Amino acid sequence: MQKTIFISYSNKDSEFVYKFKNDLNEVGINTWIDIEQIEPGSMWQDEIKLGIQNSEIVILVLSNNYLTSNWVSFELALANDKKIIPIKIDNVSFEVFSNSIRNIQWIDFSNNYKNGLNLLLQSIPNSFKNTEPIKPNKVKSKGYVFISFTENDTDFVQKLRSFLKSQDFAYWDYEEGERNYHIQFFLELESVIEDSVAVLSLISSSWKLSKWATREYFYSEEIGKPIFLLRCKILEPTLAIAGQPYIDFVIDEKLGFKKLEKELNKRLKETNATKRAWK
User: Fold this and answer.
1) What is the pTM of this model?
2) What confidence category does residue 175 fall into, taking pLDDT thresholds of 50, 70 and 90?
């Protein structure tokens, strides 16, 4: 079985990572990146954990974007027994990292990509290199969707997970998520929401009384994350979402999923178009 290198990165640096990953594949190095390896319908965090466990080297793509992602501490904790190679892709200060990272020899890609790549290849053992290029993997998942819900609505969540699988999305939810005890819970939630492609907020009478579900909704709205309100059970009028449109699953569940499919694809298409316009 061929040895694998796990690439840890911020999704905001995906353009760099795709080029970097392809260049490693060209010289016969097998890589693991999330959207190519995580199957639709999977719990994102669990698959990340398996990806790190099954890899012998972890490359950290260090950038200012990477610093703001709380996934960093989660992935570093899992990689504590792996060989770690940090690469710097912009003017990030190493002083903000822990001693365990600062004391590792890093490779600079920020000034000269070609030189950085050559230095990296010299640091990777030959046992990781095939004589033939690695065929590019097809993207398996469109990313993960953050599911915000209360314990009383878990029956509907099961149906939602099956729907997401049919639409080529993975997911994250607190019920299956493994706590990252290196950071506070609210910081962990912020990071998970920020890195998601969309937020599905299940609204019901339980949602209205929830401490965390309402906060997750307001935070997602504040950072401009695509968010969808799904009425999965009867909910009396509430100021929290007064005037906000929602998709109704109470009257006609089948029609609700059809509408969610349409709106989810439409919203993500608009989001991707906006990203391209800013490049």
Assistant:
1) 0.82
2) confident
